[in-house]
Each structure stands twice: as structure tokens, then as C-alpha cells.
Amino acid sequence: MNSMLAAIVSSLGNVECNEISALKPEFGKVLVKTELASICGSDLHIAYKGWNATTFPLDAGHPGHEGIGRVVDGGGTNFTAEDVVLTLPNVFTSRGFAGYQLLSPQHVLKVNEDLPMEHLMMAQQLGTVIYGSKRLPPLCGKNVVILGQGSAGLFHDFVLRNQGAEKIIAVDPISKRLEIGQSLGVDFGIDVVGKLANELIMDITDGLGVDVVVDAVGSVDTLNQAITIARDQGVVVGFGLPETSDRIPFNWDTFFRKRLTMYAIHGSQNEVGLPDFKQALDYIINGNINVEPFLTHRFPVDNVQKAFDLADSREEGVIKISLTFW
Length: 326
Fold this sequence. Notes:
Layout: E1 3-11, E2 14-21, E3 30-38, H1 41-49, E4 66-73, E5 84-87, E6 100-103, E7 108-110, H2 117-121, H3 123-133, E8 143-147, H4 151-162, E9 167-171, H5 175-183, E10 188-190, H6 194-204, E11 210-215, H7 220-229, E12 230-238, H8 252-258, E13 261-264, H9 275-285, E14 295-300, H10 304-313, E15 320-324
Parallel strand pairs: 8-9, 8-11, 9-10, 11-12, 12-13, 14-15
Antiparallel strand pairs: 1-2, 3-4, 3-6, 3-15, 4-5, 5-7
Helix pairs in contact: 3-4, 3-9, 4-5, 6-7
């Protein structure tokens, strides 16, 4: 093993596949051969919007953080060669869009079930949603809006329904995504955005707004929309990464007058034992959630530019794109 393929973000919006020197085993680290990696919305914010990316090219494989593969060398840890594992690096240091990854054992989770790797890989994002949902107030009798029905938004549909939300409203202009959301527990699907969507939400809630808004998009517009549609003393959750590292404007007056609580979510990979990813795997393995409709496209890593462009365009019914390293 002298070389490996890796996706490299060479500049904003430009992603290349290059052959680079392979990683070598290291004591205390787990060397994993990547089988599949998937493109997350946060990857697009980094590679296409420049969030926390000031110097290009980015490190080889960055920012990929959703992956599954086989252990090559356990580095003296509890992992052994041929173990099938989820790779769960922190997004700030991730290198998942590469043929091999060298990871702390804290960020590796062994998978034993005989299910398609592509299905099991979805436990990464589902686990982050489960992690974030633990900070929410009790949802019984509460109304919830989920802005965006990409994979993160769809996972929120499932998780918040399980947590007992009274009424779930999903907002996304793509009807196919809303159809999947309704199969996961959405009560009202809204296929318009902005002011029109806000008006419909107010009609549904008798003008009160909703108790909890999850921004699964991560844009200036959706942040301000969340503040607008939240009810007095409501909760706004910033799940989607921001589009930029610069300061962004939001409606402070409305935020203040409504006495809202607003917070961001990240850090699931740092919990000891990775409990939320284990729970996500259980949901998938036991058939509590069918992730098959999420898996819409697959590309070899040497066609990574097309994969990223399609993910960014949201065309062709795209929800989750996988990259193969075979």
C-alpha cells in the first residue's frame, strides 16, 4: 500500500480526486480502509461556502466525516484487522474522503450486523440527531417545525416523533423529500419557503407559532425564519452548520421580545462510548427506520466533483450521495 485516492477541495466549489501517499500504521491509532463515505450538508458549507476554510487546498480527505470501512491495523487498540467499523471523526479534523483514515479509537465504532454498509453508514448522521435531541425540552403536546428535509431533517422527523411531538411541520420545496418525511411522522409538509411558508405555519398553529424550530439547513434566511415562526418562549435549534465564518445578521428584536432560547449542536463524536451512534445502529438494524429512501446516488471517488455538484444543486431527487473507494 504505497498510495491512495483522496478527494481534495482545491478551492471554493472545486473538488479533485488525486492519488497521494498512503497512510502508515501508528500505535494507538486505528488504520481503516474506507469503503464508503457520504456527502453531508456541512461538507457543502465548507467546500462551497468556505465555512471555517480560509486556506486552500484543504487537507486531503477533509471535510468528509460520514464513513464506513474495514480495519487494516488496530495499532494496539481493541480493534483488529477486518473489523467493519463506522468512522466518526470530528468534522473539524476529519479526513473521511480518502481511501484510508487514521483515527483515534474514540472515533471508531465496530459494526457486527450483516446489513449493507451503505445502510449502516447512515447511523453517523442519525446519531448526531439523537445527540442533539437530548437537549430538547419534553415534546409531548408540543408543535415542532423542521426546516429542511435533507437527510438531517428527515432524521429529525423520525427522532422527534419518537420523542412524542404533538404536531410536526416540515418545510422543503422538494416534494419527494416531503413524501419521505410524511412516512417518518410528519403531519404537515410545506413545499414553499420564506414568507409563504411562515404564513402557512401560523395558520396551522392558530397564529401562535411553534414550540420548537429545528434549522436543519444552516443559512441566514432559515435562522431568521426560525426566529419568526417560534412562539413566545420557544426554542430554536441550529443543527445545520452556518454558511460562513463571518458574523451573520439575525432579528435580535424578535428574538428578545419572544424570550427565545437558541443553541447550536455539535460534539456527538466526543461522548465516551459513542452511545448515540449505538442507538442509531440499533434503530437501523432492528428496522425501526428504513434508510433505503435516503440513499439516492452513488459515485466513485474519482467522480467526486460531479457528486458534490449534484449534492449542491439538490436536483435529480438527491438526498444522500455516497462515494465509493473500491
